[in-house]
Amino acid sequence: MFATRDGEIAESLSFAALAARAISLAARLQALGARGERAALIFSPGLDFMVAMLGCMLSGVIAVPMALPRRDASRDQADAIIANCAPRFVLTTKKDATALLAPRLASRPQWQACRSIEIDDGQDEGPVADFAPSPGDIAFLQYTSGSTSSPKGVIVSQTNLLANLSMMRKSFGTSSDSRFACWVPLFHDMGLPLNALHALSAGAACILMAPLSFMQRPLAWLKVIADQRVDIAGCPNFGYDHCADYVQTRPPESLDLSSWRVAFNGAEPIRSATLDRFAAAFAPYGFDRRALFPCYGMAEATVIISGKTDRSGPAVQCRRGDSTLVSSGSAFDGEEVAIVEPATCTRLAAGAEGEIWARGPHIASGYWANAEATAAIFDARIAGEDGGWLRTGDLGFLDAAGELFVTGRLKDLIIVRGQNYYPQDIELSVQECHRAFHHQLGAAFTAPVGRTEQAVVVVQEVARRLRHLASDNHLETAAREAVANDHGLAVHKVVVVPPGTVPRRTSGKVQRSKARVLWLAGALTPAGEETGRRIETAPMSR
């Protein structure tokens, strides 16, 4: 099913109708000799994407889910993805082909070898030939939302996908009676394997909606959950904050969330304060905080690595320093998670912080046509032990009970005079010090000042509804004082920017490295001065 921005069901497909359309497309692809070829899936939000995805899987075509290309080609990954995987086909609709794809297909050399197939053009083929995939066959390529110039396509095999789907069904308690509600885009791993394919594998209903609909009206998602008696739904941490913010000024007259038993939260750092805010805001509407289901994963592991194992209890939390950390659950059956010292590759004991490594049948074999990146991340070996490990690049620790606590990103770690600081802790201190600051959209990083000094810079958005406070001269002072008081750290520069400035990935996750590049380039404009001067950067080391 597909829901509108008002939370009403606008379109639906039964399993039989979905299968019929997918089989017709599969026969069409087989007639073109497409087995083993790549096909880019480019669709506006709706049900056509799932028709194309299943059509590929039934015909042995390697699906490549992609975001809709932007009109400004320099701002998206589309050209680089096409160049990397060289798909023979682009599956789309007549509307999307005309509006967005035609200019690329005509003018970009990467696209000119692609044949566009509009799956809603009414062309049907005969019966599909039997196709039984082998375990090692590639199910799809999941491109990560990292660098625009060099995206990495994770090779997800049939074995990887089936193993992770089995883990999710067991952990979530999914059955054919379950109902999902998803606004995360289907080209993202949280949208496709965690929601749509997870539901399909259990014979469960899944209601999709456009990400923009959620961003504009988050209560529409909650309305779908209430009206459709959804029991499994989730999103990145910022989505829960967005709902809690929205309901403060626009409380619904009626909303029954009592059916919601798995509210998964992942894809970005999970904040204890967010869980508390959301649970408190929606308790009057029947939400049970025991439904909160923190989890951890990434595309390189198909989607999910760990999750809450006791669905009858609250999420596990612990104090470390001044921070309250939320457990991302524990490893699933048939999987291993280890904490490793990244420099020496030695296993660390419970409670010690290091890089999170994972091993199991759901771990992908590598990146498409990228041997260098594959060698750096996959099939790693712990000193004195067997290989086959995935290096996640994330920092964390395991407690004595095996609960995983994710503390940060290895490459984002802020080191000042030999002392380690987590950017998310600095960002939280800033965001909590003044009501004008957006709860999620800030980026803390270090930048060179002079020849050797590394200084801390914070780029922080103002909340859209409070942007009139952006000219308050006390905002920067309040942010500096908050970081100094909470962390004993002097901030070189606080950059207060207007809504929509802090760069994010398609999942909503803040891109700190890109924010750093923008600041160093002087490409940020202060809030309240959008038509005025640019931000002055620190002098670059020479």
CATH architecture annotation of the domain at 2-132: 3-Layer(aba) Sandwich
> Globular, elongated, flat, extended or rod-shaped: what is the shape?
globular
Strand element count? 27
Look at the structure and give the mean pLDDT: 90
Q: What's the gyration radius in Å?
A: 23 Å
Structural class: alpha/beta
List segments where confidence is low: pLDDT < 50 over at least 5 consecutive residues.
Answer: 531-542
> How are the strands of the largest sheet arranged?
2-1-10-9-11-12-13-14-17
Strand content: 15-25%
* Helicity range: 25-40%
Please write the CATH class name of the domain at 2-132.
Answer: Alpha Beta
Taking the alpha carbons of the first and last residues, their distance comes to 57 Å
State the helix count.
Answer: 14
User: Looking at CATH, which topology of the domain at 2-132 would you report?
Assistant: Rossmann fold
Largest β-sheet summary: 9 strands, mixed
Structure, described:
- It is a single chain.
- The protein is an alpha/beta fold.
- Among the domains are: 2-132, 3-Layer(aba) Sandwich (Rossmann fold), CATH 3.40.50; 413-520, GMP Synthetase, Chain A, domain 3, CATH 3.30.300.30.
- Helix content is 29%, strand content 25%.
- The chain has 14 helices and 27 strands.
- The chain has a nine-stranded mixed beta sheet with strand order 2-1-10-9-11-12-13-14-17.
- The model is unreliable at 531-542 (pLDDT under 50).
